[in-house]
């Protein structure tokens, strides 16, 4: 009964490409339960159709993976940050790097590579409301 209210897009294995196709059949697992297994398999293929059929019923026979080695440690800021000058930017990136170093040390790890993903707004785009 608890699975019935789960949004289909929140099921494991449902990504951005599959979600819109499934949405046409319903938004929740309860909606998808009304669709016969053979219909799901015809629409999404034998494996994916069966996966959807089972997951919406709370059935997941995949083996549980325990104690897998961690592959990454990250720090993320996903909201608008504005800087007045280069010094502010350098301090901010320094703080992020310090946080990653702290997290690595807590795990007893060392970094093999460090990746910085920086997104900037288009010059012609407006500032989001509330951020200046």
Polypeptide structure, described:
The protein has helices at residues 19-23, 29-33, 37-44, 46-55, 86-107. The chain is built from five helices and no strands. It is mostly helical and 132 residues long.
Q: How many strands? A: 0
What order do the SSEs take from the amino end to the carboxyl end, as H and E? HHHHH
Percentage of residues assigned to helices: 25-40%
Shape: elongated
Strand content: under 5%
Distance N terminus to C terminus?
Answer: 46 Å
Helix and strand topology:
Elements: H1 19-23, H2 29-33, H3 37-44, H4 46-55, H5 86-107
Give a quick summary of the entry:
By secondary structure, the chain is mostly helical.
Features:
mainly alpha; 132 residues
């Amino acid at each position: 009964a608890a699975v019935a209210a789960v949004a289909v897009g929140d099921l494991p294995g449902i990504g951005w490409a599959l979600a819109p196709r499934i949405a046409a059949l319903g938004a929740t697992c309860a909606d998808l339960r009304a669709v016969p297994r053979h219909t799901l398999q015809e629409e999404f293929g034998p494996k994916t159709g069966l996966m959807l059929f089972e997951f919406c019923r709370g059935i997941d026979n995949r083996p549980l993976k325990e104690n897998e080695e961690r592959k990454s440690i990250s720090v993320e800021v996903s909201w608008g940050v504005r800087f007045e000058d280069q010094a502010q930017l350098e301090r901010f990136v320094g703080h992020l790097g310090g946080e990653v170093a702290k997290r690595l040390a807590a795990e007893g790890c060392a970094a093999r590579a460090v990746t910085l993903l920086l997104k900037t707004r288009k010059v012609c785009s407006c500032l989001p409301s509330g951020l200046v």
